[in-house]
Amino acid sequence: MAPSILSSKSSKSGLYSSFDSGRTSSIASSSRSGSSHHPMGPKPFSPFKVLIVGAGVGGLMLGFCLEQAGIDYVILDKMRGPPTTKSTIQMTGNTLRAIEQLGLLEEVMRIAKPVSSIVLRRPNMSTVGKIDTMYLKERYGHYSCIVQRAELCQLLLSRIPQEKIQWDRRVLEVVSGEIGVQCRCSNGHVEQADILIGADGAHSSIRQNLYRTLREKHMLPKSDAEPLKYTQNSIIGMTNPLDVERYPAAGARFSEVNIVVGKDDGSHYTLWLSPASGNRVVWSVTGELLSPEDSDANFRQSEFGPEAVDAVCGLIQDLKTPFGCPLGDLIGQSQRDNITKVMIEEKHYKTWFHGRTALIGEACHKFVPFSGQGAEQAILDAVCLVNLLYKLDQNSLPDIIKTFQAYHDKRHQVLKTAFSVSSYMSNLMDSQGLTGELKRTMTFNMPSWVTNSSTDKIQVRPLLDFLPAVDDRGSKSVSTKSV
Ligand SMILES: Cc1cc2nc3c(=O)[nH]c(=O)nc-3n(C[C@H](O)[C@H](O)[C@H](O)COP(=O)(O)OP(=O)(O)OC[C@H]3O[C@@H](n4cnc5c(N)ncnc54)[C@H](O)[C@@H]3O)c2cc1C
After folding, report:
1. From the CA of 79, how far away is ligand 1's center (Å)?
2. End-to-end CA distance of the chain
3. Residue 472 CA, ligand 1 centroid: distance in Å
4. pLDDT the model gives residue 23
5. Which positions fall inside the FAD-binding domain (predicted)?
6. Measured from the CA of 367, which atom of ligand 1 is nearest?
7. Is the pLDDT of residue 479 over 70?
């Protein structure tokens, strides 16, 4: 059995001490008291069974929350086992509050590095501007952190009973009816449940199945029938632990994220460098530079995969970095398996549910990777949905539909705002010429109250309603208590 967090004791003292070292109060000194609700704990019996397709961050968070809620579930994933490819995601106070409530905060902080600032540079390394992010801890309760993705998945998996997860199950087909839902996998396996949640990422097969049904019934909005908006390719890699004498930024307690925007051989590119935990550095390049005329068709078509990266690494190895070395040095210190190619796509789907099926995470809202929203919003979806499923006492289709409608209504507005922030950043980096330079100079030299006005709007910091609350450590209150 996975341990219940209701009985786990988490020592919170000194959580950020290795980062703060006497700078400010530790995370244990909370700012405002939490809500005064009376937690009910796990349900004595599960009124229905949930089938989750996808063991990414969203699916695993959903599984772990259902475990705490006492709701029966099973997770299927097409991979042969837990993820091992090194990559990172971003987490902020928006999700770290629920992570703390679930007793996972200390362990998450061991695989995280807080961000101190984001510096924008030109290709000659001169500074365009700098955004300080240290204040986020006081305002929203936690620093913005770069978290190791595979380790986070493994942490969530360690809290999920083994019998609740099945690997090597690629779901191909869904049959949904009045009394239940059935998924058929590529190896012939069939799984049945009362509710199906597609947490299977940007190219979700659950979404495709759902949309096929809706199209046949002439119920699919036109915009949902259109493909994901693909703009360009990106390549993301993570180095092995670096020698901190040679690369002091890799060993620093805080991560100074550097972005270089410019042209190389006439091709526009954006280079990101983010020191992560374990003295590693995440690097990524996006832009025209990555689209050689002879690029492999696979390079255009696949999601997070190692296809065709070798040819592309050759195109970017001479780019300058603020570490005083060319990017090729960092590529050379990155294991081949930890370099992945990513399609820069974004889309906010209108349809998130139908019948007994609903979607969460990138299956219903795909963000560009550098927006830092993908994992955060998938976790927030999971928390919101479990709070609503907890209140659902029977396996009746009309009640399930009402629950899904409430989930969509609660999440929709925040996601719309998150998209506008993400699209703004994306356009800012892509914008070329003097206009682009001017826009970036203005954005990276703005007073913090201007940047706050957009980040304030996506603050929700929800809790799981059925578990004991934890304090809201942020000084800036949020309008919605539980989403
Ligand atoms: C290998 C990998 C590396 C990533 N690296 C980064 C990064 O560097 N930066 C960043 O910002 N974001 C990255 N992401 C994306 C980030 O993890 C997501 O934005 C975020 O976690 C929310 O995603 P999700 O849970 O909705 O879907 P995902 O994390 O994409 O998980 C979807 C899961 O569904 C499974 N799946 C897909 N189709 C099927 C099917 N038919 N049947 C069964 N299972 C299926 C997949 O194997 C996967 O485990 C990465 C994702 C992956 C998969």
Report:
1. 11
2. 28
3. 29
4. 41
5. 49-213, 336-418
6. 19
7. no
- For ligand 1, whether the C-beta of 59 sits within 6 Å is yes
Q: Residue 30: which pLDDT band, with cuts at 50, 70 and 90?
A: very low
CA distance 432 to 435: 7
- What's CA 98's distance to the chain center, in Å? 15
Topology, domain 41-114+140-227+346-431+451-457: FAD/NAD(P)-binding domain (3.50.50)
Enumerate the β-bridge partners of residue 248.
none
Helices 374-390 and 57-69: crossing angle, nearest 10°? 20
Those residues with Cβ within 8 angstroms of residue 169's Cβ, 6 or more apart along the chain or in another chain: 76, 77, 78, 185, 187, 189, 191
Whether pLDDT at 352 is above 90: yes
Position 310 scores a pLDDT of 78
Q: Is the pLDDT of residue 26 over 70?
A: no
- In 10 A of CB 242, how many CB atoms? 21
Cα–ligand 1 centroid distance for 19 (angstroms): 29
Q: Is 62 in the pocket of ligand 1 (CB under 6 A)?
A: no
- Residue 431 in tokens: 């914008």
3-state secondary structure of 466: coil
* Cβ of 200 below 6 Å from ligand 1: yes
Which tokens in the block code for residue 425?
């950043």
**Does 480 score more than 80 pLDDT?**
no
Protein residue whose Cα sits closest to atom 12 of ligand 1: 369
374 lines ligand 1 (CB under 6 A): yes
The pLDDT value given to residue 27: 39
Cα–Cα distance between 258 and 248 in angstroms, integer? 14
Q: Which residues fall within 8 angstroms of residue 378, CB to CB, at 6 or more apart?
A: 56, 57, 58, 61, 199, 360, 361, 362
CATH of domain 229-345: 3.30.9
Joined tokens for residue 450: 């201007």
Nearest CA to ligand 1 atom 17: 375
Which atom, in ligand 1's list, is nearest to the CA of 59?
25
229: helix, strand or coil: strand
* Spacing, Cα 471 to ligand 1 middle (Å): 30
Pocket test for ligand 1, best of 51, 53, 57 (most atoms within 8 A of CB): 57
